[in-house]
Every structure is written in C-alpha cells, then in structure tokens.
Amino acid sequence: MKELLLFTDGSVNTKTKIGIGACLAVENSEISSEKLKKEVKIKQFENTSSTRLELETLLWALGEMASSENAIIVYTDSQNITGLLRRRERLEKNDFRSKNNRLMNNHDLYREFFRVIDEFECEFVKVTGHQPTRGKDKIHRLFTLVDRASRKALRKYRG
C-alpha cells in the first residue's frame, strides 16, 4: 500500500470572515518542494473562522481524492483537527452538544469529519507552523508550501 502525504492549511481574515484553504497531496517518493510548489491547490471559503477553515480545508482536500487504497498521512498545524480523534467518543455520545445542551460550534463539520475519515485510512500528524527555514526538515518544507500559498492568496484577495 502506497502512502499519500496530504498537507493542509488555511488563512482567514477575521474581519471579513473570508478564508483561503490550501492543500498539497504527494506520494511519499516525490518529495521535491520546488517542483511541488505548482501542485498546491487553493480554495476560498466564506463566513468562516480559523477553526472552521482548517476543517473545511481538510474536508475539501479529502473530497478531491476519491477513496483510495492509499494510506493517507495528513499533516496539519491545527490542534483542533489532531485532537478530534481523541474526542470522538465523547462528542458522538453527547450528540455534539455542550454541557449546557447547546449544539457545539462547528458540529456540522465535526460530523462530516468523522464520516469522511471513516472512508479513508488516515493518520494525523501535528506540525509546527511558521518555523525558521534553517530548522526545517522535508515535511516542514512541504507544509510551508501550503502555509505560504494560503497566506499569499488571502493577501491577494484583500486587494
């Protein structure tokens, strides 16, 4: 079984609630960041927040891939995403409701997240974003491609 590496990140303007998500999917063997810079995909999301955007971007990126026989390793700097699997049982048991019995923010995306990842063989890896270049390994250099693409696209959107 081949491994597919999926890098996702997003950048949001909190005033306009416009966000740009970026993703890059590569086979483990093709790690050359200069060539892959052109392969980064971006998408605009509206009425979003940073937490919501990270989930929307991941779901969009996984939706771009047909269910495959590849194992997918998802690299993200989103603590929310990497922590969702640990929280799954409690979230589903409480029907995505808070202690006050109110539906949680982003409950719709949490439900969709669990539905979608059940279709894929996914592993989630938390990466540290915004590191100095000299301290980056290959994985962090690839993550930087989606980080920069989302921030650059958001700056262009702002005009």
User: How many angstroms does the end-to-end distance come to?
Assistant: 44 Å
| Number of DSSP strand runs | 5
CATH architecture: 2-Layer Sandwich
| CATH hierarchy, class | Alpha Beta
Strand content: 15-25%
Number of domains: 1
Tell me roughly what share of residues is in helical segments: 40-55%
Please state the CA-atom Rg, rounded to the nearest Å.
Answer: 16 Å
- How does the helix and strand content classify structurally? alpha/beta
How would you sum up the global shape? globular
Protein name: RNase H
Pfam families: RNase_H (PF00075)
GO molecular function, one term: RNA-DNA hybrid ribonuclease activity
InterPro entries: RNaseH-like_sf (IPR012337), RNaseH_domain (IPR002156), RNaseH_sf (IPR036397)
Would you mind describing this structure in some detail?
The protein is of the alpha/beta class and 159 residues long. It has a single domain, classed as Nucleotidyltransferase, domain 5 (2-Layer Sandwich), CATH 3.30.420. It is built from 5 helices and 5 strands, in the order E-E-H-E-H-E-H-H-E-H. The protein has a 5-stranded mixed β-sheet, with helices on both faces. It holds the Pfam family RNase_H. InterPro entries: RNaseH-like_sf, RNaseH_domain, RNaseH_sf. GO terms for molecular function: nucleic acid binding; RNA-DNA hybrid ribonuclease activity. It comes from Tangfeifania diversioriginum.
